[in-house]
Every structure is written in C-alpha cells, then in structure tokens.
Design a protein that fits this description.
homodimer; mainly alpha
DNA sequence: GCATTTATTAGACATTTGTCTAGAATGATA
DNA sequence: TATCATTCTAGACAAATGTCTAATAAATGC
C-alpha cells in the first residue's frame, strides 16, 4: 500500500486530541477491515493513514483486538441508524439492506471468512444481531410460522445473494461480462430482483 | 492451529520423494487457501502439516507465490474434471456448479476478497476462466443475445448467490435460524432455487 | 565403486507484526 | 507559577514471516 494514502482528512498535519484520535483510528480501521479483513489490518499501517502515532492504539483501545471491535461497532451503528431511519419514512423495509452499507457488509463477510465470528456477530442490540433482527421482522410481517423450512431456505438464499454481492460485486460483474458502461443498469436490475424476492409486503 | 493436525496421511513419518512432497504441499496449501485466504497461508505451517521441511517450498515452487499458484491450479483442475464429467453423463449443466467444489469456490472468494485477482483468475483453459465459460455456454444454449442486460443481471445475481453460499454457508444458515437438524433440508431447497433459476433448459 | 545430480535439513537473515513502556510534551487546575 | 493528569512520541522486545543458502543425505548413472 502506498504510504501517501487517500484517507484521513488532511494527511499533512497529525491528528491531535483524544476524540479526534479515536475517531481517526476507528475510521481508518473500518476501511481496512472491509478492504482486507481483520488479520490483514496492521495497527502500524492504520495509525499511519490515520495520522497518529501507533502507540496511541494501545493507549486508547488496549490493542489490536479492541481497535477491531471498536471499528466493527462503528460500522454497525452507522448501519443501524440507516436501517431505522429507512423504516421510519414509510418505505417498506426489505429483508436485508445490503446495498446500503457495503462497507459494513464487506467487513462482516471478511470476518466470517476468517472464522472470526465473535467480531462478525458483535453488532448486537438487545442481544440480537442485525441480520437476525431482519429475519424476525420479516417473519412476523409475513406471518410465517417459525418452522417453515421453505421460507427459511428463501431467506437463506436471498441472504447469500446479498452477502455475496456485497463482498464480491466487482468479481461477479467481471465474470458476467458486464463492462463499465453497463454496471449501473445491471446493479439496478439486481436490486429489483432482491426487492421482488418475497413479493409485495403488507403494510405494517 | 494445533500442531497435531488432522491433515496428511500419516503424520508420524515425514513425506519423501519429489512427487510426494509436491503433492503433499499442494494439498495442504489448497486447504489453507480455502480456509483462510492466501495472505493467511504460512509456508512454514503448510510445510508442517504436509510433513515436509519448509526449505522444500523454495526448492520445488520457488517461493510462496509459486506454491499458491500451484494450489489454485490444483483446485481448478479438479473442478474442471468434475464439470466436464457432469456434462458428459446427460445431466443438464447448470450456470455454475458451486455446490460441487466448495473448496475451489471458497478459495476463489478468498482470493477475490483479498484483491488478488491474478490468483483468483488463474483457472483458465484456452484463455477463458471457468466461470466465464459457464456464462458463454448458458448464453448460447438459451440463445441469448450478447447485449441482453436483463439476462446479465440474472446471471450476476445467481453467481453472487452461489459464491456467497460457497463462502458463507455456515454464517447464512446461522442468521437464517437454521439449526443442525434442518441444515440438510434447507440446503436441498436452496439447490432447487438455484437449479430452477433460468427455468428448464432445452436439450443440447 | 565412484561421480554427479537430486533431495533434504537446519539455520541465517531481514522484515514485519502486536505489545508494552519510559519519558517528553501539553494542557488544565489550584 | 506549580502541580497534576492527559496526551503523545520513539523505541525496545519477542514472535512470526518469506527468502535463501551451505552442508549433508540419498539416489542415479557410468
């Protein structure tokens, strides 16, 4: 990675002050986490792009693990804010809203693929993870019995589709022979496929 | 990872002889590649589970990069053998046959997510990668014009579904609230969803 | 049996990693 | 101004990594 990165607000002047340092580190970590996965995050590299001395990580987060958790929590709270905000304004909330927060979902996929389920499942609210909450909402809304295996398979399929899309969009478009000029159109059509998956939802 | 692994045929007696060493290293690497991604592969660890001195890697493969390429090539050739063998016995070949070689597709996903497209796209035959070949077959079989964006979107969606499934099956089942006893049934239903994606295919 | 090639081993080497610390700089408070 | 807590810096440290090599062991060809 080039030392002269495109992250961090200024790059020339180092970041100062407790909150600013915390924020810069968390944001830089979140980016690296979604980009390359937890094990590939280097605390020294993260500190460099955040414009901060690497010793600060131990000071503010206790170590790499604490920094990763803080970054994941940061991404999850952003996503949760988007999700609730979307459901407030009248629009029907869909199964998972992966197209919205690709960084969050990419980070989840990275953690899962590295086997770090603790990190991937950290985004809980009242004991329930974010995707699990979407499932529960959808099932009550559609009045599905809890043991309907057909529905569970449908949900699992659409979850796999959306996670796969979030994590591998570029590659999927590549093997589908979609060039740059067609990307937007194809992406929109895939969104439609996902939206229509369960048919029209009844109003709450 | 525990040093006393479950890999390698014997574990007690070290592997000897050029071909045997090569094979043991490639197989151990393929496993680690699918499990944790290229950057997480340690040549020393791989040599240990293969029952081989780590110096052999430089001797037989020139270094880590060569070993990774050999492992990817190994997985791709297995998959290609399965694919052609399947299309011979009369059954209709489907878009991608991801459920068949999860190790291969997991490895592909790992490479893509780390940004190592060279490694992910190495599985070429006559200049065309494996997934790209599936696309071409399907399009000629269904007589789809090359510029049909709706079809490309359908193909991209099913590719994302299958890749996402291969890479994240455990996690998807987890968030879908599928417990151990339901796994097999749900998995079968998802296979059906994929098989019926493009409707019945005309005979070749 | 001897010579030559191949296979194998153990280790050196530089680099990178995460952790932790002693001390300097900074800022607030009294 | 003097005191104190916070913030920040530079670096030490052990562990792990990929690369490469000199030396030994084994096998092969004559």
């Amino acid at each position: 990675m080039v030392p002269n990165a495109k992250n961090s607000k200024c790059d020339s002047r180092p970041v100062r002050g407790g909150d600013a340092v915390r924020r810069a580190l968390v944001e830089a970590t979140a980016g690296a986490l979604a980009e390359a996965g937890p094990s590939a995050v280097s605390v020294r590299e993260v500190a460099r792009v955040a414009g901060v001395n690497h010793g600060q990580i131990h000071h503010y987060f206790g170590g790499k693990r604490g920094l990763l958790k803080a970054a994941m929590h940061h991404l999850a709270s952003i996503h949760l804010a988007h999700a609730t905000e979307n459901s407030v304004d009248g629009s029907i909330p869909r199964a998972l809203q992966i197209a919205e927060d690709p960084q969050y979902w990419r980070a989840i996929c990275q953690c899962v693929m590295e086997g770090d389920l603790e990190l991937a499942g950290l985004e809980v609210e009242e004991g329930i993870s974010v995707p699990r909450r979407a499932l529960a909402t959808l099932m009550t809304r559609l009045e599905i019995p809890e043991t309907d295996l057909d529905f569970k398979a449908q949900f699992a399929a659409v979850a796999a589709l959306q996670l796969g899309w979030a994590a591998l969009e570029d590659f999927v478009l590549l093997i589908s022979d979609v060039d740059e000029s067609e990307r937007e159109a194809v992406r929109d059509r895939v969104k439609v496929i996902i939206s229509n998956w369960f048919g029209p939802l009844p109003a709450p």
